[in-house]
Sequence to fold (296 residues):
Amino acid sequence: MRIGVNGREMDAANVATLLRTVERMAAHGLEPYITSGMAAWLSAIGKTAPWPVLEDREPTEQDLDLFISLGGDGTLLDTVALVGRSQIPVLGINLGRLGFLSNVRSDMLEAALAAIKNGWYSLQERSLLEVTDHPELLGTRNFALNEVSIHKRDSASMIAVHVHLGEDYLNTYWADGLIIATPTGSTAYSLSCGGPVIYPTSGALVINPICPHNLNVRPFVVPDHYTIRLKLEARSDRCLMNLDSRSSTIDGQSHITVKRADFSVRMVQLDGSNFLDTLRTKLSWGLDVRSAPILP
Fold:
């Protein structure tokens, strides 16, 4: 079974764990192939990578059965960008901190690799967002798993974002920016801006302003069949358009069209793990904070 492996630069203390993780893949009879970026980073810090290196071309042309992300959620988002439209399943092994998407802990590694080897897992389809204009900025990576967000640039004044659902006017948001989040992204940037948590397979999107000027404006959940049309109105000449962790500078008077992508990401779900367990663990749901120790 040919496994693509992707990892970001990380603290030196975690490098040994990363290398051991890839070594254990081979010990389980899997064939790890590391990305060229990961190989270059390991070489730069003086580590020899004894595994084959993937070529810089489409994953579908390299006969991969699965892609494993080693790191945190940011690394998994990078891996989703690499996988693109190929439908190659993705599994995240968490070497970072919170890890909503990369939810396989390092102490679960042996069981996870055995499950991959023996096919003891299921696949969950996660929807993505797609920006259908501005190909000169986005190229073929015009999609996002978590969110598309618009943000004022640097310390500029707030921006106005005029929003239509299809042809129907929704609202004008005067704010630092605006987030359009998928159900997967509802536990990411949108959550930190007061947005709701949405079950990952729900057919919905969240429209969530960032630091809105009008305090009566709240996050809004809409069906994901809508095409969302944005018209920016900024005092500065430039704004930022972010697709997950990828940022582009865009004209402050731009039109942006966002819709659900016509393809999805196939996330590996190991037997015995689910989104509700992750919520309780990562957000401490059900924990009685009154019993927590008082910090000095």
Notes: The radius of gyration is 20 Å. The chain has two domains: 2-120+271-291, 129-262. The chain is about 20% helix and 35% strand. The longest strand covers residues 255-270.
